[in-house]
């Protein structure tokens, strides 16, 4: 297997966003970061990408401080997908992807990406005329295409902020299956997620955040507990283990009784 990328942070601190976060993300795994709104997931992801400088602490990428990499060097092997970032101007999908596609990539959309994201039929369309979910798929394709020469042989780092948001259920499952297979090739994949059910079943590694801190991280069989879920999200959960999957039920959602 190609050498894969490992990420580590040491006491990463960013005022009111990250509070001395020390966490290790294993190489060649698909890691899902979970937590309530404002927990610090996007801030951690952007710091790991080398795009957000901490007030103190460090991000190490294969044991090298991330700030020692030139941004152009990072862009060659690291994909970064933000939420809602498609440009508003009047480009077609083909024109946008053309800007980001590395010249080593010969296909308009590599087959493995097309299988999951279904982009080809959208190529002639204007960006401003796409639905929200179509825009999200194009945006994900753009991020992966940019570093595809590194990702294809399993040497990439893929960081995606809420990639499931806006996708229909079929595309959600197609995407998490794609991401798991990219990790199996050797890529290190990290994504934030609000879908506990999908993350419980498709992550190799889970990271739970609360109020700027990582409160648990590890393989699902070690950290996917009702106690960790309850500390992270502030409601009660029941976890049922089936033969090949895990089902999560919210046992006691915290809502205003007057609304029931
Ligand atoms: N650019 C910014 N400047 C200052 N504070 C910010 C900035 N962006 C986010 N924050 C704050 O930092 C904290 C963490 O935000 P972050 O976006 O990392 O959370 P998140 O876990 O990704 O949330 P969500 O699930 O809502 O996307 C929040 O309190 C947020 O209000």
Automatic annotation (TrEMBL):
InterPro entries: AAA+_ATPase, ABC_transporter-like_ATP-bd, ABC_transporter-like_CS, Metal_Ion_Import_ABC, P-loop_NTPase. Signal peptide: none annotated. Gene3D superfamilies: P-loop containing nucleotide triphosphate hydrolases. SUPFAM superfamilies: P-loop containing nucleoside triphosphate hydrolases (SSF52540). Keywords: ATP-binding, Nucleotide-binding, Transport. Residues 1-236 form the ABC transporter domain. Pfam families: ABC_tran. GO terms for molecular function: ATP binding; ATP hydrolysis activity. PANTHER family: METAL TRANSPORT SYSTEM ATP-BINDING PROTEIN TM_0124-RELATED, VITAMIN B12 IMPORT ATP-BINDING PROTEIN BTUD. This is ABC transporter ATP-binding protein. It comes from Alteromonas aestuariivivens.
